[in-house]
Design goal:
Number of strands: 12
Number of helices: 8
Strand content: 15-25%
Distance between the termini: 19 Å
Shape: globular
Largest sheet: 7 strands, antiparallel
Length: 327
């Protein structure tokens, strides 16, 4: 259940649906699986999987949802071989050449023939709504998958105004300053991984792993004009991650102090453990996001009255971080 990659979206309006109301609305787009002739389908599924029936899981002002996708797998090599066989048969029996348009029609026919016998691949995409702070957090390394979930929400709810979070300051410039020795924000510690890229197309890219990022070697690349596009760090000894210059957060890992708190519960009930893990994760991320955005100069917001508004910082509510009590 613990998220590993984060894509952040700002809600343009307060989210006013209760968990019960959202569950009811999501029922209209509930996952039902592919039919015999469907290539793919997607819909909302219980975040608890087979251990739950509700399409939402709510705790402390956070609401988790799950988008399930099923897609048929038809190997391209199989289609290509069948197409070649049919083309060869026509050429031999009818003594004529098969042109591109006819090949495309034949390929479509082959795909239709194979669909009912194709294997399926099912994947789950999790996200949660931070209702108090107007955020949607999607557990995905790719923005395209996150956009798929947002688009599905818009289709299901009729309207869901949300856009990727945009910091006021250039993330690449800020991370470059951090790596240049200007000082990290309080409670931030550099990791052992970064990627530096020169703004010129032929300027080169340097990736560093398992390396002291404060070394003269790394600084020399910055001095020669390269800029940080990916940087690993740890926050308050509670979580570590790699942040990219598009504000995507990857390889998120919660440190031992958090995992030990989660393991202290002796409850074997899946739903209870899930709820505890979800509460711990959202508590930590709810404290981390405002600190990160403050370090980036706040957030750019677009006023609904028009596109030419000035950027302004956003101050989010910061929950108090406390050690979890044993269950």
């Amino acid at each position: 259940m613990w998220f590993r990659n984060l894509q952040l979206y700002r809600l343009a309006q307060p989210f006013d649906l209760s968990p019960e109301q959202l569950d009811e609305r999501l029922r209209a787009g509930e996952f039902s699986g592919c039919g015999r002739m469907d290539m793919q389908t997607s819909g909302w599924a219980p975040p608890l999987g087979r251990h739950g029936q509700q399409l939402v899981h709510a705790a402390n002002g956070y609401i988790m949802i799950c988008l399930r996708k099923e897609e048929k797998i038809i190997p391209a090599g199989v289609v290509r071989q069948l197409l070649e066989d049919r083309v060869a048969e026509i050429s031999e029996t009818e003594q004529r050449e098969v042109y591109r348009r006819e090949k495309l029609r034949m390929k479509e026919t082959i795909m239709v023939d194979l669909l009912p016998r194709a294997l399926s691949r099912i994947s789950n995409l999790f996200a949660y709504l931070d209702v108090r702070n107007g955020l949607l957090v999607v557990d995905s390394p790719a923005s395209t998958k996150a956009e798929m979930l947002v688009s599905q929400l818009r289709t299901t709810l009729g309207r869901f105004p949300a856009a990727p979070v945009r910091p006021r300051l250039s993330l690449s410039a800020v991370m470059t300053r951090w790596l240049s020795g200007e000082g990290l924000p309080q409670d931030f510690v550099l990791g052992e991984e970064c990627e530096l890229k020169h703004p010129e197309p032929d300027g080169g890219v340097v990736s560093c792993k398992h390396q002291d990022l404060t070394s003269a070697e790394v600084f020399s690349h910055i001095k020669n004009g390269k800029r940080v596009v990916r940087l690993a760090f740890q926050w308050r000894e509670r979580l570590s991650c790699v942040i990219h210059d598009d504000l995507s957060i990857k390889r998120l890992r919660f440190e031992d102090i958090i995992s030990e708190a989660a393991e202290e519960s002796e409850d074997d009930d899946f739903a209870t453990r899930f709820d505890m893990d979800f509460s711990l994760m959202t508590l930590e991320l709810g404290g981390f996001f405002p600190v990160l955005m403050d370090a980036l100069g706040g957030e750019v917001l677009s006023d609904s009255s028009g596109p030419d508004t000035s950027p302004q910082p956003v101050t989010q509510q910061r929950p108090t971080i406390t050690e979890a009590e044993p269950a």
